[in-house]
C-alpha cells in the first residue's frame, strides 16, 4: 500500500490530497483532500481528473493522453466519480433519478468548490464549517402542491417571503449560531447555561486560562451587545477597556490573571426581553466563543389543582345544529362526573338553551366556525387542564379523566394527551409513534391526536385555534403547535362515538363544504405555515 502527496495543479501549495492505494479499480482506499480549488463545472472536473491521475502509478502517461485527447480510463473515471458521490448519496439518500452518477458528481464539484473532504470507505465527511446547507424538502409524488391552489402565486409568494423574514427576525438570534469547541485550547469558559437579565451586571462563571509558563500573559474578551468589567488590578497587572465592549487583561502572573478573569462581569446595553450575545475569549492564537443568553425572567402561571377532578379539569365542546347529540353527550358525562364543569360553544342558526348545574352555554354569531368555537370555549377555562370532546361523543367506563390527569402530572413536559398524526413538508403518518412515556408503556409520544384530548390550558392558549379554519379542521392545531406542544397518546383511555343519525341537509352542507372551502384552506396553509406541499 502506497501513499502519495501532490500539490494543487499550477501551484506549489500542497492540497494534501493523498490516498492509500491498493488498486485504482478497488474500492479499498482512503483519502483526505483539503482546500481543493475547483472552479466552474468544466475546469473543476478537469482539475479533479488531473489530481487523481497524478496519484496513480504510471498515471503520467494517461495524464498526457488526457491533455491531448480528453480521454481517461474507466478505472480512473470510476475512482473520480466515487470520491465525489459516495457520501452525498449517503447523506441525501439517493442520486436523483434524472441524474447519472457522473452528472451528480459534476453538480457536487460546482456546488461545493472549497469543501474540505475526508474520505474513507468510499465516503466523504465534510468538516462542520463546510457542510452544505440543508436543501429544500422533497414532496412525495402523492403530495398536494399547495401553490397550485393559488390564483396569484407570484404575488402571494412575495408577501409570504416578507412575512417569513420578519418571523425569523422575531424568533432567531445569535444564539442560533453554531459554535465549535477548539482542540487543545488553554481557555476555559462557559459553553452552556450562562443567562443574564437585560441591563443587569452578572459575573461570567468559569473564565480561566491554563497555559504553560510564560514571561507574560495577555487575554482579550469581546462582546457586541454589552460591556465587560473586572476589578481594578493590583500591581503586576494591566487592564484596558474596563466598562467597554473589548476588554484586555495582562499580567506576568498566571494566578493574578485568573483572579481578574474570575471577576469579569457582563452587562447588556440594550433592553430586549429575549436575545443573546456571543463573547470572544482570546489568548495568543487560541480563541473560544461562548453564548450569553439575555432574557427577562417570566413569572410562572400556576393553577391551584384543588382536591378533586372538578377543580382540575373542564370539559369543552363545540356544537352546531346537533342538540340531540349534545344532550346525549351531557347525559353520559353526568353519569360519570356529576359536578365537573362543561363549557359549550354554540354557533347554530337557531339556538336552543342548554341548562344544568355546572354548564356554561355560550351563544356565538351563527355559523362563526369550528376553531372560533374552540377558541371561545378554551378562553373560558379556569382549570389547569381542559378535556376536548366532540358533541357526538359519549362517555363510557373507559373514559377515565383521572388517569389522564395522573399521566399529565407525572410528565410535566407534556402539553396534550389523547389519541394521533405527524407534521412534516407536510407529511402525515397515521399509527406512527416516537417512543413510550417513562412509566406508562401504554402511552406514546406523537405529533398530534384525534378530537378527544386532555390539554394543558396555558399551552393550548399559546398555540390557539386559528379562527380562519371555520369548517373542517383539527390537525391544523397540531401543525401550528409542532415544535411547541409535547403530545402523547394513550391506548387505555378512550371515549365512545354515537351512532350516525340522519341530519337535515343544512348540517351536511356545512359538514362537507365542498372543493372551494378545501382550496381556501390549502391557500391558507401555504401562506401561514410556509408550506409548499401536503402529503395526506
UniProtKB/TrEMBL annotation:
<dbReference type="GO" id="GO:0019276">
    <property type="term" value="P:UDP-N-acetylgalactosamine metabolic process"/>
</dbReference>
<dbReference type="Pfam" id="PF00535">
    <property type="entry name" value="Glycos_transf_2"/>
</dbReference>
<feature type="domain" description="Glycosyltransferase 2-like">
    <location>
        <begin position="318"/>
        <end position="413"/>
    </location>
</feature>
<protein>
    <submittedName>
        <fullName>Beta-14 N-acetylgalactosaminyltransferase 1</fullName>
    </submittedName>
</protein>
<dbReference type="InterPro" id="IPR029044">
    <property type="entry name" value="Nucleotide-diphossugar_trans"/>
</dbReference>
<dbReference type="GO" id="GO:0008376">
    <property type="term" value="F:acetylgalactosaminyltransferase activity"/>
</dbReference>
<dbReference type="GO" id="GO:0006047">
    <property type="term" value="P:UDP-N-acetylglucosamine metabolic process"/>
</dbReference>
<dbReference type="InterPro" id="IPR001173">
    <property type="entry name" value="Glyco_trans_2-like"/>
</dbReference>
Amino acid at each position: 500500500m502506497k501513499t502519495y502527496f501532490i500539490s494543487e495543479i499550477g501551484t506549489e501549495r500542497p492540497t494534501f490530497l493523498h490516498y492509500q492505494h491498493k488498486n485504482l479499480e478497488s474500492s479499498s482506499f482512503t483519502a483526505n483532500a483539503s482546500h481543493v480549488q475547483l472552479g466552474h463545472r468544466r475546469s473543476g472536473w478537469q482539475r479533479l481528473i488531473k489530481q487523481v491521475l497524478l496519484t496513480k502509478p504510471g498515471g503520467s502517461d494517461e495524464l498526457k493522453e488526457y491533455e491531448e485527447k480528453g480521454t481517461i480510463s474507466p478505472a480512473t473515471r470510476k475512482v473520480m466519480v466515487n470520491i465525489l458521490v459516495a457520501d452525498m448519496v449517503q447523506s441525501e439518500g439517493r442520486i436523483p433519478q434524472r441524474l447519472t452518477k457522473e452528472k451528480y458528481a459534476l453538480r457536487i464539484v460546482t456546488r461545493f468548490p472549497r469543501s474540505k473532504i475526508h474520505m474513507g470507505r468510499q465516503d466523504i465527511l465534510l468538516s462542520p464549517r463546510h457542510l452544505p446547507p440543508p436543501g429544500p424538502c422533497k414532496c412525495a409524488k402523492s403530495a398536494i402542491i399547495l401553490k397550485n391552489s393559488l390564483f396569484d402565486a407570484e404575488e402571494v409568494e412575495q408577501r409570504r417571503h416578507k412575512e417569513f423574514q420578519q418571523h425569523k427576525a422575531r424568533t432567531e438570534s445569535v444564539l442560533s449560531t453554531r459554535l465549535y469547541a477548539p482542540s487543545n485550547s488553554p481557555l476555559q469558559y462557559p459553553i452552556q447555561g450562562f443567562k443574564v437579565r437585560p441591563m443587569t451586571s452578572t459575573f461570567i462563571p468559569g473564565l480561566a486560562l491554563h497555559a504553560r509558563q510564560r514571561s507574560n500573559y495577555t487575554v482579550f474578551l469581546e462582546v457586541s451587545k454589552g460591556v465587560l468589567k473586572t476589578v481594578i488590578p493590583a500591581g503586576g497587572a494591566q487592564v484596558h477597556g474596563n466598562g467597554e465592549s473589548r476588554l484586555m487583561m495582562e499580567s506576568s502572573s498566571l494566578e493574578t490573571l485568573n483572579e481578574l478573569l474570575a471577576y469579569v462581569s457582563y452587562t447588556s446595553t440594550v433592553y430586549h426581553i429575549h436575545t443573546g450575545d456571543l463573547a470572544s475569549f482570546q489568548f495568543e492564537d487560541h480563541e473560544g466563543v461562548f453564548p450569553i443568553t439575555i432574557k427577562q425572567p417570566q413569572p410562572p402561571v400556576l393553577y391551584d389543582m384543588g382536591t378533586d377532578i372538578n377543580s382540575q379539569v373542564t370539559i369543552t365542546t363545540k356544537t352546531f345544529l346537533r342538540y340531540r347529540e349534545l344532550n346525549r353527550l351531557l347525559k353520559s358525562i353526568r353519569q360519570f362526573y356529576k359536578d365537573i364543569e362543561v363549557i359549550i360553544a354554540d354557533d347554530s342558526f337557531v339556538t336552543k338553551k342548554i341548562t344544568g348545574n355546572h354548564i356554561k352555554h355560550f351563544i356565538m354569531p351563527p355559523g362563526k366556525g369550528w376553531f372560533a368555537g374552540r377558541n371561545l370555549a378554551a378562553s373560558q377555562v379556569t382549570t389547569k387542564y381542559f378535556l376536548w370532546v366532540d358533541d357526538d361523543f359519549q362517555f363510557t367506563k373507559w373514559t377515565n379523566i383521572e388517569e389522564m390527569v395522573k399521566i399529565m402530572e407525572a410528565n410535566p413536559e407534556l402539553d396534550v394527551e389523547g389519541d394521533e398524526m405527524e407534521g412534516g413538508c407536510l407529511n402525515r403518518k397515521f399509527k406512527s409513534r416516537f417512543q413510550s412515556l417513562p412509566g406508562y408503556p401504554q402511552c406514546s409520544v406523537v405529533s398530534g391526536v384525534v378530537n378527544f384530548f386532555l390539554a394543558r390550558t396555558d399551552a393550548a392558549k399559546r398555540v390557539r385555534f386559528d379562527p380562519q379554519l371555520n369548517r373542517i379542521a383539527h390537525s391544523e392545531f397540531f401543525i401550528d403547535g409542532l415544535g411547541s406542544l409535547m403530545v402523547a397518546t394513550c391506548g387505555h383511555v378512550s371515549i365512545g362515538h354515537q351512532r350516525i343519525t340522519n341530519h337535515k341537509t343544512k348540517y351536511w352542507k356545512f359538514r362537507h363544504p365542498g372543493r372551494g372551502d378545501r382550496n381556501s384552506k390549502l391557500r391558507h396553509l401555504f401562506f401561514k405555515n410556509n408550506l409548499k406541499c401536503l402529503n395526506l
